[in-house]
Amino acid sequence: MPGTHVQNLQTLAGGLIPAIVTEGDLRDAVYWHQTIHLPFIATSPTFRLDRQWNWPTLVSWTYIIEKIMGRNTAFFQINVATPAGNALPVGQVLVSDGFPFFPGLGEPSIFLWYLAAAPLAALRYHKIPHDFKLLRALVDVAIQFSFQRGYDGRLTLHAASGGVAAEDQNLYDKYYAIGLIPYALHLPIRFVRRNDGRYFYADQSCANRLSKVLDPLR
Amino acid sequence: MTNVMRESDQMLFSVSDTERQIEINFVKRLSQLLRERTVDEIQQWAVSGEFNRIFNVLYDETSPVPERQFKDLKPFDYSDWARRNLLKD
Fold first, then answer.
1. Which residues of A touch B81 (CB under 8 A)?
2. Could you give the domains of chain A?
3. CB contact under 8 A, A113 and B43
4. Nearest CA-CA partner of B45 in A62, A96, A189, A131
5. ipTM
6. CA of A215 to nearest chain B CA: how many angstroms apart?
7. In this complex, is the C-beta atom of A205 within 8 Å of any C-beta atom belonging to chain B?
8. Residue burial B17-28, b: 16+ Cβ < 10 Å; e: rest
């Protein structure tokens, strides 16, 4: 059913683990910063686009920035349970509510500003014996929110660039692989002015298709 | 100047005329700065760490945050979010 968030995450091995999509606040952003970001992302030996992100700053200031632009924001986390029963956020998204849908006529959509998934090392440290398929699940959170807002699943996002060509292509390929539609480089985007060829979107048809993929997890 | 407490965290501006004018001027300047930027430029600020330098921390990110029990988590409640964001269903 559109507008229903997942209640499980799929592991790479194919199993299902209970999960809860929650609304995050600044406290949750700080918890991520202290528990996931500083020990595992900021010091990651491999390339991470979010290495220098500061989620408490992103959450608080994006709220203000979007308010000035006349839009709301929403911050979501996907949580699983540690063996001790504690909640561990394994991924989070920060979205803008009402961003003009540039593949259409500017109808309101959800714009996915920032997305992060906990690295495997963080899961291992917290004794989570799984690796999850998180990208699709995190994008789905934004799509379901779009359905809840009455936007028919419309979603837009920009695959940020980290300045490393191979990694930029890797991120682009990941969004493409989960079924989001790339917005062609030659097309103008009047609401964001510059199209660098790294925008993706889901229209209603695409959102329905992507939702169905995760229906067994709801 | 008398400080007037905000009556609600949903209020964007202070009740005090003086404070409100300062805040409005700040918002105008920030709005102009943002309108001159593209999405990829703002994201690039985050990726490069520039975002953290432009926008100061508004919250003590060093204060310890207690762990929560998974069983105590509340799934996202859209109606509650909409109410708090002053939306009409």
1. 23, 74
2. 8-217 (3.40.630.30)
3. yes
4. A62
5. 0.90
6. 17
7. no
8. eebeeeeeeeee
Model confidence, pTM: 0.89
CA distance B39 to A110: 14
Per-residue exposure over A104-119, b if at least 16 CB sit within 10 Å of its own CB, e if not? eeeebbbbbbbbbbbb
Greatest Cα-to-Cα distance within chain A, rounded to the nearest angstrom = 52
Closest residue on chain A to B65 (Cα): A31
Q: Which of residues 170-199 of A touch B (CB under 8 A)?
A: 192-194, 196, 198
Task: Give the model's confidence band at A110: pLDDT under 50 very low, under 70 low, under 90 confident, else very high.
Answer: very high
Cβ of A57 and B78 within 8 Å?
no
Amino acid letter for position B8: S
Alpha-carbon span A132 to A116, nearest angstrom: 13
Give tens-digit pLDDT for A111-166. 999 999 999 999 999 998 778 889 999 999 999 999 999 999 999 999 998 878 89
Nearest by Cα to A200 from A158, A171, A166: A158
Assign A90 to helix, strand or coil.
Answer: strand
Interface of B with A in 26-45 (CB under 8 A): 27, 30-31, 34, 38-40, 42-44
Residue at token pair 């592991």: A11
Instruction: List the single residue in B with minimal CA-CA distance to A68.
Output: B31
Confidence at residue A62, expressed as pLDDT on a 0 to 100 scale: 92
* Model confidence at B13: pLDDT above 80: no
